[in-house]
Design brief:
Blueprint: E1 6-7, H1 23-32, H2 39-50, E2 58-61, E3 64-67, E4 73-79, E5 82-88, H3 91-97, E6 104-107
Antiparallel strand pairs: 1-3, 2-3, 4-5, 4-6
Length: 108
């Protein structure tokens, strides 16, 4: 079982329990308890992880890092003649995150 979140900043932040109503906290807790994700939740995790500048396997919230490495896979996407690496739950969530024509998605 994974820890729900890790503090990744050196300054004082609110207690982790104060974030119990956040989407990242709820999803991480559900995964820790053996639950499953809906399509919208998979798409949300994929979008948030790939639009994050600090970590490519986590969602950041108020100084805490919610790690989703256990559900993420690495994909290489060919789009407009260029290859880019993304982390995502599945190919469908990668495709829903991207705009335009996707030539190919390969899981590594």
């Amino acid at each position: 079982m994974n820890q729900i979140a890790y503090k990744f900043v050196s300054w004082d932040v609110p207690a982790l329990e104060s974030l119990a109503g956040s989407k990242a906290y709820i999803l991480r807790k559900r995964l820790n308890d053996g639950g499953t994700l809906t399509r919208e939740e998979k798409d949300w995790i994929t979008r948030e992880v790939n639009h994050n500048t600090y970590f490519k396997d986590s969602i950041l919230l108020l100084g805490y890092r919610f790690n989703f490495v256990d559900v993420l896979k690495t994909f290489v996407v060919k789009q407009y003649g260029h290859y880019t690496e993304y982390k995502g739950v599945d190919k469908t969530s990668i495709r829903s995150m991207l705009y335009g024509r996707v030539e190919r998605i390969v899981e590594l």
